[in-house]
Amino acid sequence: MRNNITELLKGVEVEWKTLGEVAEVGTGNANRQDEDEHGQYPFYVRSKNILKSKKFQFDETSIVIPGEGGIGDIFHYIEGKYALHQRAYRIHVFSNKLNTKYLYYLMCDKFKQYILTKCVGATSISIRKPMLEQFQIPIPTLHVQTEIVRILDTFTALTAELTAELTTRKKQYNYYRDKLLTFKDDEVEWKALGEVAHYSNTRISFDKLNEKNYVGVDNLLQNRAGKTDSNHVPKEGNFTEYLTNDILIGNIRPYLKKIWQAEYFGGTNGDVLVIRPKNDLLFHRYLYHVLANDNFFEYNMQHAKGAKMPRGNKEAILKYHLPIPPLKEQARIVEILDKFDTLTNSITEGLPREIELRQKQYEYYRNLLLDFPKAEQ
């Protein structure tokens, strides 16, 4: 692939133009979010609703970018009908020397760095029309632009395919988790969580904690995705200790479904619950899958305290009833669900890892394809 790209770009000549010389840059109007009578104009960027004002409805090929917020990160390549918010920009190419999709990929790669140089020292960053119009565009021949688009489209399609596969597998995971953990009352023994597990009552000193083994609610990831390293490590005091295989649950905003089964020892604070089995009635991993199920998080939210920042009720959580099948059946359930968990959540061997690798590959080749010599000043 690299050799083909080198050959494609060998000796290629580019013409440099400002964006304002090759494209019309404009904004939408107002923030009305009413539907028009046919509902044919998707609304960008602030809402999925649509505008009535035909003046700001378009049917064309364009690039749309928000004027504030995720600066330089959010680009929409649009072919067809759309309506535009007053804080969004529309970039419509009028030059017959420039491929709009090529421009889209170029801006995805280069624009954020450019806009940050224009806002050095600013307390808040927003994009203004002159900034867009002054953005320098390298323009090779249309043949080269078309080939660049073809290559990058291939990588984009592959990532989209993997993402769709991940979505399907997650749906399967949710289905089987619900199915495997659903029992009739008389099929298995049922016990309150507090009968088979308890909260950690041991403490650990700050000097035994580091970025990897200190867990706060901030570095627990949403939707059962585990955790990342912490950006903050305590400098004094004692904390709740967790041990290998303990289950950590974020206790603020339970609907975020933050849960992780510990792979080593460490410490956490009062915003994270540390749950540890206290007898041999269940496997640690089986308990993890039970508590990672939507039924538990829904129960937790029903008993949570507070409106703006709901917090799980520790006493009510221990009253949550869970099924206790025989250990052999628990092991079978764990084996099945762990396979789905690895496929859908693992950052080292599952689909998320594959998607990450493909995204890096895409970004590498995008940079390689669009790294033209700078225009002379």
What does this structure look like?
β13 and β14 form a beta hairpin. The chain has 11 helices and 17 strands. It has a 5-stranded mixed sheet. With 377 residues, it is of the alpha+beta class.
Keywords, separated by commas or semicolons:
377 residues; alpha+beta; five-stranded mixed sheet; four-stranded antiparallel sheet; elongated
Short description:
The chain has helices spanning 2-9, 19-22, 100-118, 129-133, 142-180, 193-196, 284-291, 294-302, 314-317, 327-345, 351-369; strands at residues 15-18, 23-27, 43-44, 57-66, 76-84, 88-93, 136-139, 189-192, 197-199, 203-205, 214-215, 238-242, 247-250, 259-261, 266-268, 272-277, 321-324. The chain is α+β, with helices and mostly antiparallel strands and 377 residues long. The strands form five sheets. Strands 2-6-4-5-3 form a five-stranded mixed beta sheet. The chain has a four-stranded antiparallel beta sheet with strand order 9-16-13-14. A four-stranded mixed beta sheet has the order 10-12-15-11, with no helix packed on it.
